[in-house]
Amino acid sequence: MTSLPPQSSPGPSPQPTPPSSLSRIRIGSAPDSWGVWFPDDPQQVPWQRFLDEVSASGYEWIELGPYGYLPTDPAVLKEETERRGLTVSAGTVFTGLHRGPEVWESTWAHVSDIAALTQAMGAEHLVVIPAFWRDDKTGAVLEDSTLTPAQWRQLTTQTERLAHEVRERYGLSIVVHPHADTHIDSEENVTRFLDATDSSLVSLCLDTGHYAYCGGDSVKLIETYGERIGYLHLKQVDPLVLAEVRANEVPFGPAVARGVMCEPPSGVPALEPVLAAAQRLGVDLFAIVEQDMYPCPPDKPLPIAQRTRAFLRSCGA
Description:
CATH class: Alpha Beta
Helix content: 25-40%
Order of helices and strands: EHEHEHEHEHEHHEEHHEHEH
Number of strands: 10
CATH superfamily: Divalent-metal-dependent TIM barrel enzymes
Strand content: 5-15%
Mean pLDDT: 93
CATH architecture: Alpha-Beta Barrel
Radius of gyration: 22 Å
Distance between the termini: 60 Å
Number of domains: 1
Protein backbone atom coordinates (compact mmCIF):
# COMPACT_ATOMS: atom_id res chain seq x y z
CA MET A 1 0.00 0.00 0.00
CA THR A 2 1.50 3.25 -1.08
CA SER A 3 1.50 5.87 1.58
CA LEU A 4 0.35 9.34 0.70
CA PRO A 5 2.88 12.14 1.00
CA PRO A 6 2.37 14.27 4.05
CA GLN A 7 0.26 17.35 3.38
CA SER A 8 2.13 20.54 3.77
CA SER A 9 0.69 22.80 6.37
CA PRO A 10 -0.71 26.06 5.04
CA GLY A 11 1.69 28.96 5.26
CA PRO A 12 0.95 32.14 7.12
CA SER A 13 -1.84 34.29 5.73
CA PRO A 14 -0.54 37.00 3.42
CA GLN A 15 -0.11 40.28 5.23
CA PRO A 16 -1.20 43.60 3.78
CA THR A 17 1.63 45.43 2.12
CA PRO A 18 2.73 48.31 4.34
CA PRO A 19 2.69 51.76 2.77
CA SER A 20 5.94 52.75 1.14
CA SER A 21 8.07 54.96 3.31
CA LEU A 22 7.91 58.63 2.53
CA SER A 23 11.53 59.01 3.56
CA ARG A 24 11.98 62.49 2.04
CA ILE A 25 8.90 63.99 3.73
CA ARG A 26 9.20 65.68 7.13
CA ILE A 27 5.81 66.00 8.84
CA GLY A 28 4.90 68.86 11.15
CA SER A 29 2.02 71.05 12.25
CA ALA A 30 1.33 74.71 12.88
CA PRO A 31 -0.59 77.09 15.14
CA ASP A 32 -3.20 77.30 12.38
CA SER A 33 -4.31 73.75 13.24
CA TRP A 34 -5.08 75.02 16.75
CA GLY A 35 -7.28 77.87 15.49
CA VAL A 36 -4.53 80.50 15.69
CA TRP A 37 -4.73 83.23 13.05
CA PHE A 38 -3.55 86.30 14.95
CA PRO A 39 -0.72 87.25 17.33
CA ASP A 40 -3.20 87.89 20.12
CA ASP A 41 -6.87 86.95 20.15
CA PRO A 42 -9.13 85.94 23.06
CA GLN A 43 -10.61 83.11 20.97
CA GLN A 44 -7.21 81.40 20.59
CA VAL A 45 -5.48 78.94 22.91
CA PRO A 46 -2.43 80.23 24.83
CA TRP A 47 0.87 79.50 23.12
CA GLN A 48 2.01 77.21 25.94
CA ARG A 49 -0.99 74.98 25.37
CA PHE A 50 -0.35 74.88 21.63
CA LEU A 51 3.24 73.75 22.20
CA ASP A 52 2.20 71.15 24.77
CA GLU A 53 -0.50 69.70 22.55
CA VAL A 54 1.39 69.71 19.25
CA SER A 55 4.16 67.77 20.98
CA ALA A 56 1.67 65.39 22.59
CA SER A 57 0.21 64.71 19.13
CA GLY A 58 3.52 63.28 17.92
CA TYR A 59 4.78 66.13 15.78
CA GLU A 60 8.42 67.20 15.87
CA TRP A 61 8.28 70.20 13.51
CA ILE A 62 6.28 73.41 13.86
CA GLU A 63 5.95 76.76 12.14
CA LEU A 64 6.08 80.05 14.00
CA GLY A 65 2.57 81.09 13.02
CA PRO A 66 1.58 84.76 13.24
CA TYR A 67 4.53 86.77 14.51
CA GLY A 68 4.06 87.53 18.19
CA TYR A 69 1.92 84.51 19.03
CA LEU A 70 4.94 82.43 20.09
CA PRO A 71 7.69 84.18 22.07
CA THR A 72 9.82 86.40 19.83
CA ASP A 73 12.90 86.14 22.05
CA PRO A 74 14.92 83.32 20.43
CA ALA A 75 16.41 82.20 23.74
CA VAL A 76 12.97 81.81 25.31
CA LEU A 77 11.49 80.13 22.26
CA LYS A 78 14.41 77.72 21.95
CA GLU A 79 14.05 76.66 25.55
CA GLU A 80 10.29 76.20 25.22
CA THR A 81 10.48 74.21 21.98
CA GLU A 82 13.52 72.09 22.81
CA ARG A 83 12.12 70.82 26.09
CA ARG A 84 9.08 69.62 24.18
CA GLY A 85 11.11 67.99 21.41
CA LEU A 86 10.03 70.53 18.79
CA THR A 87 11.98 72.24 16.01
CA VAL A 88 10.89 75.20 13.87
CA SER A 89 10.60 74.56 10.13
CA ALA A 90 9.63 78.05 8.91
CA GLY A 91 8.35 81.50 9.65
CA THR A 92 5.47 83.18 7.83
CA VAL A 93 5.10 86.70 6.42
CA PHE A 94 2.27 88.53 4.67
CA THR A 95 3.11 90.86 1.80
CA GLY A 96 1.43 93.22 -0.66
CA LEU A 97 4.23 93.35 -3.20
CA HIS A 98 1.92 93.94 -6.17
CA ARG A 99 1.61 97.49 -4.83
CA GLY A 100 5.15 98.27 -5.97
CA PRO A 101 8.31 99.85 -4.54
CA GLU A 102 6.36 102.27 -2.34
CA VAL A 103 5.50 99.44 0.05
CA TRP A 104 9.00 98.00 0.15
CA GLU A 105 10.18 99.72 3.35
CA SER A 106 7.10 98.77 5.37
CA THR A 107 7.23 95.24 3.95
CA TRP A 108 10.89 94.82 4.83
CA ALA A 109 10.35 96.11 8.38
CA HIS A 110 7.74 93.37 8.82
CA VAL A 111 9.77 90.67 7.07
CA SER A 112 13.12 91.34 8.73
CA ASP A 113 11.91 90.74 12.29
CA ILE A 114 10.32 87.44 11.32
CA ALA A 115 13.27 86.39 9.18
CA ALA A 116 15.66 87.09 12.05
CA LEU A 117 13.65 84.93 14.45
CA THR A 118 13.30 82.19 11.83
CA GLN A 119 17.05 82.18 11.26
CA ALA A 120 17.78 82.19 15.00
CA MET A 121 15.58 79.12 15.41
CA GLY A 122 17.62 77.23 12.83
CA ALA A 123 14.91 77.12 10.17
CA GLU A 124 15.67 77.62 6.49
CA HIS A 125 12.31 78.64 4.99
CA LEU A 126 10.15 81.72 5.00
CA VAL A 127 6.56 81.20 3.86
CA VAL A 128 5.35 84.27 1.95
CA ILE A 129 1.58 84.80 1.70
CA PRO A 130 0.30 87.45 -0.74
CA ALA A 131 -2.02 90.20 0.46
CA PHE A 132 -5.71 89.38 0.69
CA TRP A 133 -8.02 91.25 -1.65
CA ARG A 134 -10.80 90.37 0.81
CA ASP A 135 -10.32 90.63 4.58
CA ASP A 136 -9.71 87.15 5.97
CA LYS A 137 -11.75 87.81 9.13
CA THR A 138 -14.62 90.06 8.05
CA GLY A 139 -14.81 89.31 4.32
CA ALA A 140 -14.77 93.02 3.46
CA VAL A 141 -13.52 93.71 -0.09
CA LEU A 142 -10.22 95.59 0.14
CA GLU A 143 -9.23 95.86 -3.54
CA ASP A 144 -9.91 94.40 -6.97
CA SER A 145 -9.61 90.62 -7.14
CA THR A 146 -7.79 90.85 -10.49
CA LEU A 147 -4.35 92.38 -10.94
CA THR A 148 -3.49 94.67 -13.83
CA PRO A 149 -0.49 93.72 -16.02
CA ALA A 150 1.52 96.42 -14.25
CA GLN A 151 0.61 94.98 -10.85
CA TRP A 152 1.62 91.50 -11.99
CA ARG A 153 5.04 92.88 -12.98
CA GLN A 154 5.40 94.49 -9.57
CA LEU A 155 4.33 91.29 -7.83
CA THR A 156 6.90 89.15 -9.63
CA THR A 157 9.82 91.60 -9.58
CA GLN A 158 9.31 92.62 -5.96
CA THR A 159 8.98 88.97 -4.91
CA GLU A 160 12.32 88.23 -6.57
CA ARG A 161 13.81 91.22 -4.76
CA LEU A 162 12.45 89.92 -1.47
CA ALA A 163 13.83 86.45 -2.15
CA HIS A 164 17.27 87.86 -2.92
CA GLU A 165 17.38 90.05 0.20
CA VAL A 166 16.10 87.33 2.52
CA ARG A 167 18.67 84.88 1.17
CA GLU A 168 21.57 87.33 1.33
CA ARG A 169 20.81 88.73 4.78
CA TYR A 170 19.32 85.75 6.59
CA GLY A 171 20.23 82.66 4.56
CA LEU A 172 16.58 81.72 4.13
CA SER A 173 14.67 80.50 1.08
CA ILE A 174 11.26 81.99 0.44
CA VAL A 175 8.35 79.76 -0.55
CA VAL A 176 5.32 81.62 -1.87
CA HIS A 177 1.97 80.31 -0.63
CA PRO A 178 -0.99 80.37 -3.05
CA HIS A 179 -3.98 81.27 -0.90
CA ALA A 180 -7.71 81.74 -1.29
CA ASP A 181 -8.85 85.37 -1.58
CA THR A 182 -5.39 86.49 -2.75
CA HIS A 183 -4.12 87.16 -6.27
CA ILE A 184 -2.10 83.91 -6.36
CA ASP A 185 -4.84 81.35 -6.03
CA SER A 186 -6.07 79.39 -9.08
CA GLU A 187 -4.07 77.16 -11.41
CA GLU A 188 -4.02 79.98 -13.96
CA ASN A 189 -2.61 82.53 -11.52
CA VAL A 190 -0.18 80.11 -9.87
CA THR A 191 1.33 79.03 -13.19
CA ARG A 192 1.43 82.63 -14.39
CA PHE A 193 3.36 83.57 -11.25
CA LEU A 194 5.78 80.66 -11.57
CA ASP A 195 6.42 81.30 -15.25
CA ALA A 196 7.22 84.95 -14.52
CA THR A 197 9.64 84.44 -11.62
CA ASP A 198 13.22 83.21 -11.39
CA SER A 199 13.29 79.54 -10.38
CA SER A 200 16.64 80.03 -8.64
CA LEU A 201 15.05 82.55 -6.27
CA VAL A 202 11.36 81.78 -5.91
CA SER A 203 9.82 78.44 -4.93
CA LEU A 204 6.30 77.50 -3.95
CA CYS A 205 4.66 76.45 -0.72
CA LEU A 206 1.93 74.25 -2.15
CA ASP A 207 -1.04 74.24 0.19
CA THR A 208 -3.18 71.33 -0.93
CA GLY A 209 -6.33 72.70 0.68
CA HIS A 210 -6.10 76.22 -0.69
CA TYR A 211 -5.21 74.92 -4.14
CA ALA A 212 -8.23 72.59 -4.13
CA TYR A 213 -10.41 75.40 -2.76
CA CYS A 214 -9.44 77.42 -5.83
CA GLY A 215 -9.95 74.53 -8.27
CA GLY A 216 -6.35 73.33 -8.66
CA ASP A 217 -4.93 69.79 -8.85
CA SER A 218 -1.98 69.40 -6.45
CA VAL A 219 -0.60 66.21 -8.01
CA LYS A 220 -0.65 67.79 -11.46
CA LEU A 221 1.15 70.87 -10.14
CA ILE A 222 3.83 68.75 -8.45
CA GLU A 223 4.34 66.69 -11.60
CA THR A 224 4.44 69.77 -13.87
CA TYR A 225 6.42 72.20 -11.72
CA GLY A 226 8.28 69.79 -9.48
CA GLU A 227 11.48 71.81 -9.40
CA ARG A 228 9.51 74.77 -7.99
CA ILE A 229 7.89 72.91 -5.11
CA GLY A 230 9.90 73.89 -2.05
CA TYR A 231 7.48 73.18 0.77
CA LEU A 232 4.04 71.67 1.43
CA HIS A 233 1.06 72.48 3.58
CA LEU A 234 -1.27 69.51 4.03
CA LYS A 235 -4.93 70.42 4.14
CA GLN A 236 -8.25 69.16 2.83
CA VAL A 237 -11.53 70.81 1.89
CA ASP A 238 -15.04 69.50 2.43
CA PRO A 239 -16.46 69.33 -1.12
CA LEU A 240 -20.07 69.85 0.01
CA VAL A 241 -19.25 72.95 2.04
CA LEU A 242 -17.01 74.19 -0.78
CA ALA A 243 -19.85 73.89 -3.30
CA GLU A 244 -22.06 75.99 -1.03
CA VAL A 245 -19.26 78.52 -0.50
CA ARG A 246 -18.69 78.89 -4.22
CA ALA A 247 -22.40 79.11 -5.03
CA ASN A 248 -22.90 81.90 -2.50
CA GLU A 249 -19.52 83.65 -3.04
CA VAL A 250 -18.68 83.31 0.65
CA PRO A 251 -15.36 84.96 1.65
CA PHE A 252 -12.61 82.71 2.94
CA GLY A 253 -12.82 83.64 6.63
CA PRO A 254 -16.54 82.92 6.97
CA ALA A 255 -16.03 79.79 4.83
CA VAL A 256 -13.54 78.47 7.40
CA ALA A 257 -16.05 79.19 10.16
CA ARG A 258 -18.50 76.99 8.22
CA GLY A 259 -15.99 74.13 8.22
CA VAL A 260 -14.79 74.27 4.63
CA MET A 261 -11.38 72.97 5.75
CA CYS A 262 -11.93 69.52 7.23
CA GLU A 263 -10.09 66.78 9.06
CA PRO A 264 -8.17 64.31 6.87
CA PRO A 265 -8.93 61.93 5.30
CA SER A 266 -12.56 63.04 4.93
CA GLY A 267 -12.00 65.71 2.28
CA VAL A 268 -10.16 66.47 -0.94
CA PRO A 269 -7.60 66.20 -2.31
CA ALA A 270 -6.58 62.69 -1.25
CA LEU A 271 -3.26 63.18 0.51
CA GLU A 272 -1.68 59.81 -0.31
CA PRO A 273 -1.15 60.62 -4.03
CA VAL A 274 0.09 64.11 -3.15
CA LEU A 275 2.68 62.73 -0.75
CA ALA A 276 3.70 60.03 -3.23
CA ALA A 277 4.18 62.62 -5.97
CA ALA A 278 6.25 64.76 -3.61
CA GLN A 279 8.39 61.76 -2.63
CA ARG A 280 9.09 61.06 -6.31
CA LEU A 281 10.72 64.49 -6.62
CA GLY A 282 13.70 63.00 -4.76
CA VAL A 283 14.25 66.01 -2.49
CA ASP A 284 13.67 66.61 1.21
CA LEU A 285 10.40 68.46 1.78
CA PHE A 286 8.54 69.68 4.81
CA ALA A 287 4.85 68.77 4.81
CA ILE A 288 3.18 70.84 7.50
CA VAL A 289 -0.38 70.05 8.53
CA GLU A 290 -2.59 73.12 8.51
CA GLN A 291 -6.26 72.61 9.15
CA ASP A 292 -7.72 76.10 9.09
CA MET A 293 -9.99 76.42 12.10
CA TYR A 294 -10.92 79.90 13.26
CA PRO A 295 -12.54 80.28 15.63
CA CYS A 296 -12.71 76.88 17.30
CA PRO A 297 -13.38 75.52 20.81
CA PRO A 298 -10.12 75.10 22.76
CA ASP A 299 -10.60 71.36 23.26
CA LYS A 300 -11.24 70.61 19.58
CA PRO A 301 -7.72 70.70 18.02
CA LEU A 302 -5.85 68.09 20.09
CA PRO A 303 -7.86 64.96 19.18
CA ILE A 304 -7.96 66.06 15.53
CA ALA A 305 -4.19 66.54 15.54
CA GLN A 306 -3.64 63.11 17.06
CA ARG A 307 -5.91 61.41 14.53
CA THR A 308 -4.30 63.30 11.65
CA ARG A 309 -0.81 62.29 12.75
CA ALA A 310 -1.93 58.66 12.96
CA PHE A 311 -3.48 58.89 9.50
CA LEU A 312 -0.27 60.29 8.00
CA ARG A 313 1.72 57.48 9.61
CA SER A 314 -0.62 55.02 7.92
CA CYS A 315 0.38 56.69 4.62
CA GLY A 316 4.04 56.05 5.41
CA ALA A 317 4.91 59.56 6.65
